[in-house]
Amino acid sequence: MAPILKISDLHKHFGPLEVLRGISLDVDPGQVVALVGASGSGKTTLLRCVNALEDYHKGSISLGDEQIGYQELNGRRVRLPESRVARQRADLGMVFQSYNLFPHMTVLDNVALGLVYVQKKSRAEAERIALSWIERVGLAEKVKSYPFQLSGGQQQRVAIARAVAMQPKVMLFDEVTSALDPELIGEVLAVMQNLARGGQTMLVVSHEMMFVREVAHRVVFMDGGVIVEQGPPEEVLVRPRTERLQTFLTRFRGVLR
């Protein structure tokens, strides 16, 4: 089976700082790939490049047969028009650390917005789809609520519903539980776990190692802008081969026993 997402020799720098140094990674349809590593290892930058929120300087990112963010013209890599990039992003749902909900809109309106303005669905159809996803993330009683009336975990579940309602080919999750109180983390991870069980392709940055161990098909350990190790979670998390990964995992010993 051909990969749905293909990252090839990706390089990205901020001035003299090289953040991604030749990342190559394939994600197959229905696969959950978890990116782990210390802060500053390049995980979030990689996700932002995949979603065309960051330019990169070398390499390519393809969703199916289409290159994301760029096209080749006369041997040069040229940025696509923003209107076309926006259409590509609709196939790459992204959920951030911060919830990024519109504070003046209800839960229903937040989830329906992209369906109306990006996918050009009628208001009635958009609300029907939005309601079904709001129910699936366990917030049916909150459809008329505003973000300030919700807990952090509830807001993050709305953000997930908003992204998956667009039926993206790949979901990108960037440390979506990092801003949550400990007692709220489980409700968000449960939603993600249900998505994975339903066959949603996912590229996930997370430090929730029990979740990674239980849900991911493949774990990718990044350090210093490169992939150091990757493989099934029972190998990467339980029997790490490199000293760099062994050192990283020492902080999770109690969780991964």
TrEMBL record:
Gene3D superfamilies: P-loop containing nucleotide triphosphate hydrolases. Its main location: membrane. The keyword Repressor does not apply. This is Amino acid ABC transporter ATP-binding protein. It comes from Candidatus Segetimicrobium genomatis. Keywords: ATP-binding, Cell membrane, Membrane, Nucleotide-binding, Transport. Residues 5-249 form the ABC transporter domain. CDD domains: ABC_HisP_GlnQ. One of its GO terms (cellular component) is plasma membrane. It is a peripheral membrane protein. GO terms for molecular function: ABC-type amino acid transporter activity; ATP binding; ATP hydrolysis activity. It is found in: Cell membrane.
